[in-house]
Amino acid sequence: MSEHLRLGVNIDHVATVRNARGGIYPDPVRAAQLAAEAGADGITAHLREDRRHITDDDIARLSETLTVPLNLEMAATEEMLRIALRHRPHAACIVPEKREERTTEGGIDAAGQFDRLLPMVSALREAGTRVSLFIEPDARQIDAAMRLGAPVVELHTGRYCELDGAARTEELRRIADAAALAAKNGIEVHAGHGLTFDNVAPIAAIPQVVELNIGHFLIGEAIFVGLAESIRRMRAAMDAAR
Ligand code: PXP
């Protein structure tokens, strides 16, 4: 098991609060710098098609100033591909996106959208960006990720977080099985969505998972304890589970 489980802090919802007033405060780039100082191994930002939180200018400023790797979450569109190729972030995570959804619902259908994704994955890889596919913990999706040449998959933990009791245990088993299958085939495994102090441990304990991407809960918790402390507590919960 890799000892250090990386924490990618998603700063989208700092931008959500900023945009509620349309001004420049709070600045997600400042939050990203603070997160890096507090122990984040990377910063994740989702430039959505409708720009409801992170903006093009945020991505430009993050690209210029970050001292830790940037993971750009993006829909599989030509516009997002152009932006990613312009900034060449360390990593790009391809996610499904629907305008009406509140947050990313479900993983991308890598198997069903194979032909559409193949040139995008290739172009990003050629630009030196580490491509990850945000997928459901499902053997068919992992097989598609392999055939697409994606070096990384991020397993969707949203369902695990919403369920409880035996159903949660069953979903955890699906995630663990998917992680083992991906790693056995040489794919790096990340996980994320909906993680909190209370539910992170079993995911952090999956030996093949090397990175967690966490946003909404950390930013919400920052209201009560501050961003640095929120991140430190998550870091501690992850390390304890490892
Ligand atoms: N990973 C991916 C691919 C996501 O789309 C999101 C949500 O933007 C996250 C992780 C983080 O989820 P949450 O904000 O619920 O922690």
UniProtKB/TrEMBL annotation:
<feature type="binding site">
    <location>
        <position position="53"/>
    </location>
    <ligand>
        <name>1-deoxy-D-xylulose 5-phosphate</name>
    </ligand>
</feature>
<dbReference type="InterPro" id="IPR013785">
    <property type="entry name" value="Aldolase_TIM"/>
</dbReference>
<dbReference type="InterPro" id="IPR036130">
    <property type="entry name" value="Pyridoxine-5'_phos_synth"/>
</dbReference>
<dbReference type="GO" id="GO:0008615">
    <property type="term" value="P:pyridoxine biosynthetic process"/>
</dbReference>
<comment type="subunit">
    <text>Homooctamer; tetramer of dimers.</text>
</comment>
<keyword id="KW-0963">Cytoplasm</keyword>
<feature type="site" description="Transition state stabilizer">
    <location>
        <position position="154"/>
    </location>
</feature>
<comment type="function">
    <text>Catalyzes the complicated ring closure reaction between the two acyclic compounds 1-deoxy-D-xylulose-5-phosphate (DXP) and 3-amino-2-oxopropyl phosphate (1-amino-acetone-3-phosphate or AAP) to form pyridoxine 5'-phosphate (PNP) and inorganic phosphate.</text>
</comment>
<feature type="active site" description="Proton acceptor">
    <location>
        <position position="46"/>
    </location>
</feature>
<protein>
    <recommendedName>
        <fullName>Pyridoxine 5'-phosphate synthase</fullName>
        <ecNumber>2.6.99.2</ecNumber>
    </recommendedName>
</protein>
<comment type="pathway">
    <text>Cofactor biosynthesis; pyridoxine 5'-phosphate biosynthesis; pyridoxine 5'-phosphate from D-erythrose 4-phosphate: step 5/5.</text>
</comment>
<feature type="active site" description="Proton acceptor">
    <location>
        <position position="73"/>
    </location>
</feature>
<feature type="binding site">
    <location>
        <begin position="12"/>
        <end position="13"/>
    </location>
    <ligand>
        <name>1-deoxy-D-xylulose 5-phosphate</name>
    </ligand>
</feature>
<feature type="binding site">
    <location>
        <position position="48"/>
    </location>
    <ligand>
        <name>1-deoxy-D-xylulose 5-phosphate</name>
    </ligand>
</feature>
<feature type="binding site">
    <location>
        <position position="194"/>
    </location>
    <ligand>
        <name>3-amino-2-oxopropyl phosphate</name>
    </ligand>
</feature>
<keyword id="KW-0808">Transferase</keyword>
<dbReference type="GO" id="GO:0033856">
    <property type="term" value="F:pyridoxine 5'-phosphate synthase activity"/>
</dbReference>
<dbReference type="InterPro" id="IPR004569">
    <property type="entry name" value="PyrdxlP_synth_PdxJ"/>
</dbReference>
<feature type="active site" description="Proton donor">
    <location>
        <position position="193"/>
    </location>
</feature>
<dbReference type="GO" id="GO:0005829">
    <property type="term" value="C:cytosol"/>
</dbReference>
<comment type="similarity">
    <text>Belongs to the PNP synthase family.</text>
</comment>
<feature type="binding site">
    <location>
        <position position="21"/>
    </location>
    <ligand>
        <name>3-amino-2-oxopropyl phosphate</name>
    </ligand>
</feature>
<feature type="binding site">
    <location>
        <position position="103"/>
    </location>
    <ligand>
        <name>1-deoxy-D-xylulose 5-phosphate</name>
    </ligand>
</feature>
<feature type="binding site">
    <location>
        <position position="10"/>
    </location>
    <ligand>
        <name>3-amino-2-oxopropyl phosphate</name>
    </ligand>
</feature>
<dbReference type="Pfam" id="PF03740">
    <property type="entry name" value="PdxJ"/>
</dbReference>
<feature type="binding site">
    <location>
        <begin position="215"/>
        <end position="216"/>
    </location>
    <ligand>
        <name>3-amino-2-oxopropyl phosphate</name>
    </ligand>
</feature>
<keyword id="KW-0664">Pyridoxine biosynthesis</keyword>
